[in-house]
Amino acid sequence: MGCFPWQQGVKKSADIGRIASKHVKVTVSGKNSYSLKNSRAVTLSLKKPKIQNKLTAIENMNHVNDKENQNNDVEEMDTQDVETAETPNDAGEGDGGGENRQLNGEVQEQAASQDTEMGEDESRSEATFRYTVHNVSKLKDSELSPPCIVRNLPWKIMVMPRSSNSGPDRTIHTRSLGFFLQCNGDSDSNSWSCFALADLRIVSQKDGVDSFTRKIQHLFFSKENDWGFSHFMSMNEVLDPEKGFIKDDSIILEVHVIADAPHGVSWDSKKHTGYVGLKNQGATCYMNSLLQTLYFTNQLRKAVYKMPTEGDDSARSVALALQRVFHELQFSDKPVGTKKLTKSFGWETLDSFMQHDVQEFLRVLLDKLESKMKGTCVEGTVPKLFEGKMVSFIKCKNVDYGSTRIETFYDIQLNIKGKKNIDESFRDYITTEILDGDNKYDAGEHGLQDAEKGVIFASFPPVLHLHLMRFQYDPITDCSVKFNDRFEFSDKISLDPYLQAAEATRADYTLHAVLVHSGDNHGGHYVVFINPKGDGKWCKFDDDVVSKCPKQEAIDNNFGGHDDDMNMTVKHCTNAYMLVYIRDSELKNVLQEVTEEDIPQELSDRLQEEKRMEQIRRKERNEAHLYMTVNVVLEDSFEGHQGNDLYDPDKVQYRTFRFKKDTTLSDVIDQLAESLKYPVEQIRPWPFNYRSNQTCRPTLIDFEADLYKFVVDVAENVNPFNIWVETVRPDSGLKSLPTFDKDLDVLLFFKLYDPKHKRIHYCGHHYIPVAAKVQELIPVLNERAGFPPNTELVLYEEIKPNLTEKIENYNEPLEKVLEELMDGDIIVFQKDEKDNIMYDLPTCQAYFRDLYYRVEVTFCDKTIPNDPGFTMELSQQMTYDQMTRAVGQRMGIDPYLLQFYKCQNYKDSPSHPLRCTYEGTVKDLLSNYKPKQPKKVYYQILSIRINELENKKQFKCVWVGPKLKEEKDLILYPNKTGTVADLLEEARKQVELSENGSGKLRFLEVNCYKIVNSPHEDTLLETLSTSANKTFRIEEIPREELTLAEDEMLIGVGHFHKDIYNTFGIPFLLKIKNGEPFYKVKDRIQKKLGVPEKEFVKFKFAVVIMGQPQFIKDDSDYTINTNELRPALNQGGTTTLRPWLGLEHVNKAPKRSRYNYLEKAIKIYN
């Protein structure tokens, strides 16, 4: 940020801030940390100007006496990187300390303050303090003054000697005095900031000599906590007694600082002002300003409290969320959050990082409140407070005819461009507009008449919102621009002169709030100044920080304007954009006190309960690191699972428990037993373990070693900790679980595969010795499956996804047969039957292979925006043909009438259509997707079979009826090698021709609302080019245009406004004849368009040849020359631009609203 140097009492003539600078390294000895005997250098990073000693043009900017200040350098303000420390009180701390003490004198002398209340109000916004530097001629190191407290932060004067080399060969050594203001220099925090303006002054000690002052403004923060001038004044001037700044080798430095309330430090807004602020979510300062304004409209706040919200959803109710914010603003001691409010709006996170239009947001919010208040005891509060009325009128000058219409308003938009103040804007608002010439008023039976049009106010509301139109659309740049012009307003206004008739009470208003924007149309910062009680005592609400401020800061400093119009301490881009006035006669009513008794008890109780629950949740979050989650799965969760392993982690319903991490395993088991209602001896926990082969199986806990370990150690720091709790089966008759020998036994799980129904059935678990033979499992499996004991079975081991191995030797021990036998291994079995071969998936191996390639795919109709579609489970190995048959069967449609599209990998939209001969598989179709990402394929239902379609060319055309209205969009499929005639024949099948029409169609090319070509019927379709602005049109040829004589032709007719490139509407062809008077052509045009006479007389006509319009001024003399209007051929034999007939008139079609690509309309969805 640049500096603003000027003389005291002399107006600045130029701004020399931000002079180009570079860093030079200067070494000074440490001040008090080291003695001279073993001192080490402290490196300062100083900014040295590129421009030095070029004083002629800039002396007047910095000095009172030109001749006396010729050696003073000019440089930019700088942030010092040096670590400074005050001189120790004790001179005995090493030789260096004593020498410094002796040379520099009483550097610890208390600073003198000109503010008598310095010690009384540390939250004050400004103060003046001094610091006397002794033994200046011997000054070697930096010094800091004692602190002066402003805005609860310590401010110190920092002074130091500086030196630099200048001149062409940099041999001229110059010494200067560095003078800085430091803020909060001892803080270790890096989150604070404070904006301040300051005068840095060296005080004159000689009569007749003015003090020398330089000004700064800066946002102080941890990395730039001091700001000032590396070369405030040359040492020659400082030490020259004739200059008047030194006396007895001492100088007096003075600072007058004005600071905003700081952010990021413990600024107690409630203590200093009685009010609290709102937290900023990212870009919600505009909303915060508006919410504070509505909150201090006390009558509205009281009505908001009384809205019935007992049955409202806590997360979706806008009314309840606003009640919550208002309640916290009234009773909280800390800044209030608005996330629940914006969430109730239905806004996503992005909405909170976008600045919206304040006026639009206010209207939407008030509309939402008005709707919520209907049918309640506070119905009508919003219009009662904010609604005014105005009368729009049109009055003829020469006949007794006119019209009036009463309109209501909730706010008034005032034009500020070229206006000095509110009175000028209101006078401009009610200035009448003269309707004459081409813009005459249609007075019915009196015809077109000269008239005046305007508005006048019928009534003003108790609370008047004035939007100053600082943001306006600029058609040249096609974006919004901000006007920073000066616009004055006062704390009292009278609006009686702008009323149609006097009201019951005078329309005198008191200023209640000033909403201010700093920045440009691309963004910036919003604050609001509010006069809460209407008594002229103002506060500044800057998001979470609230501070008292003088009237001048709230009003005068926000008029706007440029440097020449305003105080130099105010940024020209900071100005008011909305004003809130309250009618004097309603002031006490609108600002009536809102007490706790005004809040319904049900609402208070609900909000208190919410707060209590929030405190509990906050406590849980704060203590979350002390806890861990244990997810319990019981055996019934394994039933019905059709996939690998024992359950699906994404679908299972865990029983969730929360334990302190230092809870022992023994205590965990006790609590689980109590919760599950089993004796401890009837449960056994088995943690799930993720194996290296991508499976998840139960594993054993070593109870001897782990029973008294902390659960976090047993879980090996895995959180959440998933376990299967084995329990005694209720029908087993056992009083405890059987013992399990970790060395001799193994835990196995069983699954039965049914090839007929392609289903897996869970058959429980079993402890068995590792030395037991596989044959010993057969009776157990038959019993579990309900088969006869001697049923022959085929056994498989489920090793990992898509790997299931058949067990061949049943007479071998399990530890030899099963691969790496472990607890949690799964045996899959099925009947050994010859009939199995007739099934699609005869073995569990085939089943799990199919499962491995199975995928859920969602099919969406590409012609329906945001179509949720339907989901099918398919195999990734399916061919395109198999997939189309499956989808066709699911939809009940011929698969050859379906066309499919892959999803684009960079956005969720269809890519190019797939050919019906596509040779890839479903896996290839989904290659863009990650494993767990939802898969999507788009489709379109065709009117012809896809194998036929691929030999055809798709054409999008518009059908225009005889009344020149675009009636229908056509999608046609002629053969790729076809002609325009084939295309017209296809169109004939889809359109309805006129009853008495010619029955013949024609094909037109339209570009930028002009007919550019009418291809012959034998034109090949493949020769027709397409572009973004070109459309193809089909229409029925009028009977009168079927045949053309030699002296007749068809000419294109188009509409434009002011400029021939500003075309619009539906162009058409018109038959004209050589030598024909133009007035006859006009008659046919009017008849074809069906335009009333009073509108048609405003049309102007131009013949456009080679892009140049030739306006027809007198149609009675103008005759048609078809030779001039026929398209000419250029040297290449191609047709040049076709001449056309232009109709110049106003485009009355509704214009599309313009949006910046980052903007979107404000909506409150709930």
TrEMBL record:
EC number, as in UniProt: 3.4.19.12
GO biological process: protein deubiquitination; proteolysis; regulation of protein stability
Main location: nucleus
Subcellular location: Nucleus
Record's compositionally biased regions (Polar residues): 107-116
Region (Disordered): 58-102, 107-126
Leader peptide range in chain numbering: none
CDD domains (alphabetical): MATH_HAUSP, peptidase_C19C
UniProt GO MF annotations: cysteine-type deubiquitinase activity
Biased composition (Acidic residues): 73-84
Gene Ontology CC terms, in alphabetical order: cytosol; nucleus
Gene3D superfamilies: Apoptosis, Tumor Necrosis Factor Receptor Associated Protein 2, Chain A, Cysteine proteinases, Phosphatidylinositol 3-kinase Catalytic Subunit, Chain A, domain 1
Catalytic activity reported: Thiol-dependent hydrolysis of ester, thioester, amide, peptide and isopeptide bonds formed by the C-terminal Gly of ubiquitin (a 76-residue protein attached to proteins as an intracellular targeting signal)
UniProt keyword terms in alphabetical order: Hydrolase, Nucleus, Protease, Thiol protease, Ubl conjugation pathway
Residue intervals of the USP domain: 276-584
Keyword Repeat (UniProt): no
Domain MATH residue range list: 126-257
The keyword Nucleus is assigned to this record: yes
Family stated for the protein in its record: Belongs to the peptidase C19 family.
PANTHER family: UBIQUITIN CARBOXYL-TERMINAL HYDROLASE, UBIQUITIN CARBOXYL-TERMINAL HYDROLASE 7
Protein's name according to its UniProt entry: Ubiquitin carboxyl-terminal hydrolase 7
Organism: Ladona fulva (Scarce chaser dragonfly)
Lineage, highest ranks first: Eukaryota, Metazoa, Ecdysozoa, Arthropoda, Hexapoda
